[in-house]
Amino acid sequence: MADEVILLDYWPSMFGMGTTKIALAEKGVAYEYKETDPRAKTSSLIETNPIHKKIPVLIHKGKQICEPLIQLEYIDEVWSDTYPILPSDPYQKAQARFWGAFIDKKFYDPSWKVWGTTGEEQVTAKKELLEHFKTLETELGDKTYYGGDVFGFVDIALMGYYSWFKAIEKFGEFSIEAEFPKLTQWTKRCLERESVVMSIADSDKIVEYAYVLRRKLRAE
Amino acid sequence: MADEVILLDYWPSMFGMGTTKIALAEKGVAYEYKETDPRAKTSSLIETNPIHKKIPVLIHKGKQICEPLIQLEYIDEVWSDTYPILPSDPYQKAQARFWGAFIDKKFYDPSWKVWGTTGEEQVTAKKELLEHFKTLETELGDKTYYGGDVFGFVDIALMGYYSWFKAIEKFGEFSIEAEFPKLTQWTKRCLERESVVMSIADSDKIVEYAYVLRRKLRAE
């Protein structure tokens, strides 16, 4: 076991997908990847994350760490001698945590409603999501990355969600690029990083997956 | 301005109330307290927390830090030479963050529904809240405090919510002490700390406040 790192994750997961993988890639940490469908509630997921039964689950030296943003902090602390994910200044750190949590808390619910529902529920969710995009874009301003010139915590949180952009645009019938040019340029800059490219899912496959899931949701 | 610390908070707030005040007390940090009713959405709240417009807001050296758990981390980092709030081991720290977030995310919604709603909505909320209490009690096990012998992050998060226990018992018609003896003993041990006693609101006043708010909610 020793220093072994295992990641239980699911390729199209809206949050698991990128966040933790990008952080491990930035740190150059090798790990074993175990594809784990959270809808199947496999025994490995129940054993390793009995409280939320959610992916991603990071297992290091036989101990599990749950929740993507908590995993980012853990990874940053354990592999502290390589690429820093959080800034060292307490105030900058608090701000990064605030905006990471903003993405984590605010994006998920309206996003799945944009592709998973119809009618008024979808319209309300789209409106809400666009407001959150606007808030985040305004906060970014003219910076290269969230923290300035350095790719870090908030950028990773955002890119962990990026693969769903195309599906959200398709079902929500709007263009992120047209409505949020700065947000778009931001994600484009992040997409230049190898850690991101190697960690996130293919947007077209996510669109296909969203179609399947949408049909399933409607049948239920 | 210099090293000035200001706390915008509201005495009966379910989360603001205790958490940040307990942490500042443990660290021995003097601060100016400004009573701020979040329902009034005062201009000071809009200026200092424009995103969530929620209390508590911690202002240090003219810069605001929002969200109670992020404030705890900030306080622990800035005043690092006194009482440590988070453990130093990355795994223990991740666990403390997980359970702090569990209290922060899971308790609020069912709690206000227990005193603020009736009928099936209240019954469902009560059932949910009791499950969360059970989960937290099981996680505590036979330890003195969440982290073992040391009062810290998770204990502070719990005690920031404690003043609402009596109101929840009253409207939910159950006894926390009878159903969760270990949780009760845990809060009693925490109540022995001066930082807690001087920071949390009076439970009877919270019951009165819940009555008023309940009438208001029904009238709306």
Question: How is the secondary structure organized here?
Answer:
The structure is a homodimer.
Chain A: E1 5-9, H1 16-27, E2 32-35, H2 43-48, E3 57-60, E4 63-66, H3 68-78, H4 90-106, H5 108-116, H6 119-140, H7 153-159, H8 165-172, H9 176-179, H10 181-190, H11 194-197, H12 203-219
Helix pairs in contact in A: 1-3, 1-7, 4-7, 5-6, 5-8, 8-12
Structure, described:
Chain A is an alpha+beta fold and 220 residues long. Chain A has two domains: 74 residues, Glutaredoxin (3-Layer(aba) Sandwich); 130 residues, Glutathione S-transferase Yfyf (Class Pi), Chain A, domain 2, CATH 1.20.1050. In chain A, 58% of the residues lie in helices and 8% in strands. Chain A contains twelve helices and four strands. In chain A, strands 2-1-3-4 form a four-stranded mixed beta sheet, covered by helices on one side. The longest helix of chain A is centred in the middle third of the chain and has 22 residues. Chain A is globular and about 50 Å long. The model of chain A has no long low-confidence stretch (mean pLDDT 92). The interface between A and B is medium-sized, with 21 and 21 residues. Chains A, B: It is an enzyme of class 2 (transferase). Chains A, B: It is found in: Cytoplasm, Cytosol. Chains A, B: Its EC number is 2.5.1.18. Chains A, B: It catalyses: RX + glutathione = an S-substituted glutathione + a halide anion + H(+). Chains A, B: Belongs to the GST superfamily. Tau family.
Brief summary:
Chain A is of the alpha+beta class and 220 residues long. The first copy, chain A, contains twelve helices and four strands, in the order βαβαββαααααααααα. Chains A, B: One of its GO terms (cellular component) is cytosol.
